[in-house]
Amino acid sequence: MKKIFNTALLAVCLILPSSAMAESGVVISAIGEVRIVQGGKVFPAKSGSQFDNGAVIEVGKNSSAALMLSSGSIKKLRPKEKFAAAGAAPSKNDAGVIKGIAMAYNDATTKARGPVVHGMVKGVGESGGKPARQTQDNIPLPPDSVRIMEKDLGKIDPMGLDNDGRELMRAQVYYKYGQYRSMVETLLPVYHAQTPPSDMVKRLLALGYDKMGLSEEAKKFK
User: Fold this and answer.
1) DSSP classification of residue 63
2) 18-59 tens-digit pLDDT
3) Model confidence pLDDT, tens digit, residues 49-88
4) 117 and 220 belong to one structural domain
5) How far is CA 220 from the centre of its chain?
6) Which residue of 45, 99, 126, 211 sits 20 to 30 Å from the alpha carbon of 175, by its own alpha carbon?
7) Which residues pair with 197 in a beta bridge?
8) Which residues constitute the domain of residue 110?
9) Residue 12 belongs to some domain of the structure
10) DSSP-assigned letters across all residues of 207-222
11) For helices 143-154 and 163-176, angle between their N-to-C axes, nearest 10 degrees
């Protein structure tokens, strides 16, 4: 009986990692020819293009891309490289993670379930924070949280992203710290520059306006 149990446990352990490692994500930066193969269709990638488990991101010659997985880890792809989202595990080539930045991605991609709580901050900075009242501006931060936010923002430039990619990353950092006004002001130029705007850019703008209690503005991006 014990042998049967151990065998079953081993089988579960072997199965779990492949499913647990499968992640959806978003293209942060696409320089040159980058495309997503998903659901039997192929479409060009740009900053804010989403992909699901099972998708393959293909990078062309003299091109590059950066992806953010739902865990928040950033993966950079070189010319002629392919990345399969299903069963993907972090590697030594991953560009690391800005702690807590996946909050924006996951909040934007999760369909609304019940009423939206405006102006709630999930952990301001590394030291945590209390929920704030609804606001139409940035939530005031203590000096230590401002320093930590600036440190997070400083991690973006060395990533070598294109302009839209840098702004997309900056917007997610602003969201992490409850700087919703800065978030939407950072994303609006990207929204207007893209034709058509990517779903993630629109969803993040809607999320930012919702967090500020500006539901009518949020509707424009839904």
Assistant:
1) -
2) 333 446 899 999 999 999 999 899 999 999 999 998 899 999
3) 999 988 999 999 999 999 998 878 889 999 999 999 875 5
4) yes
5) 21
6) 45
7) none
8) 98-222
9) no
10) HHHHHTT-HHHHHTT-
11) 160
